[in-house]
Amino acid sequence: MGQRSGVGLVELAILEALDERRARPGGRPVSCEKLLAALEGELGLARGYAYQVVIDLAQEWKLPVPLVEGRGNFGGRGNDAPASPRYTEARLSPVGQVVLAAERGEIAPVPVGMINGNTHREGIRPPFRPAAVIDAVRQVLRRPRLPGSQISGIVGPPDFITGCTVTGDLAALAAGQHAELGLHARVTVTSAAHVRDRVTKAAIPGNQPPGFTRDPSRPVIVIDKFPPYSNPDEILLSIADRAQGHDWHSRHPELGALTRLPIKDVADLTTARGGYWFACLPADGTPPQVLRDQLLKVHGVSIYLTTRLPQPLPVMIRTWTRSNHDEDLPGSLTALENALASRRQTRLAECY
Amino acid sequence: MNVEAPGIGGVAPAGSEFPVVVLAAAVLAAEQVSGVLVGSAALWLRGEPVSVGDVDVVIEPGEANLRRLHDALAGLAVRPAAVPAVHRLRDVSVATIFSSYGRVDCMLERGRCDWESLRQNAGYVAVADVRVLVASAADAWELRARFRKW
Question: Does A248 touch chain B if contact means CB atoms closer than 8 Å?
């Protein structure tokens, strides 16, 4: 990986290629087909592989700090696949430009690799909140002997961007040990009136409140804020399928009771602005909390990742800061913050 | 994974709070797919202190069983179109599907090579009201040591 940013070498090659073509923030993006042809010609990177990396670098629900800005259909969180590279364009994001400047020695190093992690590509290093990592480095610069527990406290738990809940042995993770992290969508028991209000507020033409909202006091389960690496379209199919009966249910009623979801109706109320959200109406006589607990166990509503940091978190921050302390770290951190602000990195939790 | 009791191995009812993915193995058994559960799910059902990430099932070779497996996977998979056809199941080493319970790896090559020995040491464990054929802890550990990344 790049020594001065922690960004992977293939990612850096893509950023370099964009910069060489003047596809910079605010500038004219370059056709992805031309970009991929150049990467194949110059570095031998196969187009399909390189395109997947370009897409990953641009998808805002996967990376706390996207390094590429995509134009055109770069794919969605569900079954919406990215368009052919003939129809998409890309340019550096402001943070991508800062990463290149750090790698070229124009500014001091930036901890972007530490922030983004690599779980988005099935790695084991989770992402962290950008402002928290920057703050921790600043604190260590000011107080090199800052206790490890305080450094871990400043960085906080991994941050998976979409607003999903993170569970697991966070202390083990911070100590540099293997930790199984659970990422859970938000599953809330609410009322049909709330669902109706939310649909009305979203005000998307054609998106009508479902029929069951006519009885405003009816309990409804709402699922939103899905984990970043799960496919909400597939989750919806899973939930609908699990509400159906199967031949073996009569032979194995106990297993049937464990696996069948007591759902009367399920509605996909996803909107472009509001992100993915589903509403489930419990079957008659099913306490909503029971259905809520069962929904939380559906794969995708909850996913589990094996994670591990290369060193204990405080050691990582301290070592990185110490090894670069003779450079203008405050300056590069400010440049990174400005780049984040200029992208108007609003928290996507609201959207996803 | 056979549902009927064969008379070898004991039935050790597991607790009611199964890791969700274990239910996928029970569904395969309920669909009358013949196989031996191995991997972390098998170890968990054998009372070993492991975390269960997915389900690994060694599938008994044989045309009729592969047909049952195909149909069961098509019912389990979130993307039924991704389930290999029966003629592909005869050749592939592992068929992986994602279900609403989690990831299911069907180990077909291992079944073609080691079915008899795995079957001999396996025993039935109750998952809800389904009896799932589970590899012995020694076999499960041995396979895990051979294939695990870390």
Answer: yes
